[in-house]
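Preliminary data (for renewal application), fe (ii) ion complex.
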Amino acid sequence: MTERRALPAAETDPTIAALPAGTRALLAELWTQRAASELAAGQAFAAVERDLAALDADPAVLALAARAVADEPEHAALCMLLAEAYHGAPLEAPAPRPFQLPVHDGADDVLRRHLHVVGLCCINESIAVAFVAACLADAAGPLLAGVHREHLADEIGHARVGWAHLASARVDADVRAALLPWLPRLLSANLAVWSDRIGILPEAGVRGHALPPARELRAATIAAAREIIVPGFAHVGLPTAASSAAVDRAAR
Ligand SMILES: [Fe+2]
Ligand SMILES: [Fe+2]
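Predicted structure:
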């Protein structure tokens, strides 16, 4: 977990107080749902941490993963801080959203573990970086901006778990060759999940409240795939033609 800066108190964020009651209720509900997703992300990272341990991953990668496991419940608490700020009163924390890492039919146990790391960290968390950055760019109030800055800094660390693992000696030429045919479908599946997540948000967004219009958020996820993930694969020596084609299909 990164060291937290002090966040401004909810009641000092005038942009929240200025919103109509209906919009405040909607944002309180969205942030409560987001808290449940962050708790599930914590469970997903705990499973990936176990995968990395089983792969005898580099100690530096394991340390980054342990930090991510601790960060996600902290993100859930930050989401509830926002939910309560919009609601104007305390709220009950939600149960974690149910989650299961993909089974990846046809992969053996070792490959499945590597695929979990690539899917959750290199792909999902790199897209999360772009998503949170787009939200931060639209956060007008001090509390919203503070929460999103914390979240963005952590998401970069979470993506690094995967990139550091791919660049480590534990991922040799044989592992890279085994991973390669799976990359386009991992990218497609993750982009589809993000598109669904964005689909439950208000299409027009709520300007100033870290909720840009849905088309801008979708564009941010595609840009992350094109400008972070595909070049990242190339950087660690993975050919990218099929991955680029998968991103092009998702962008249509
Ligand atoms: Fe998170
Ligand atoms: Fe994360």
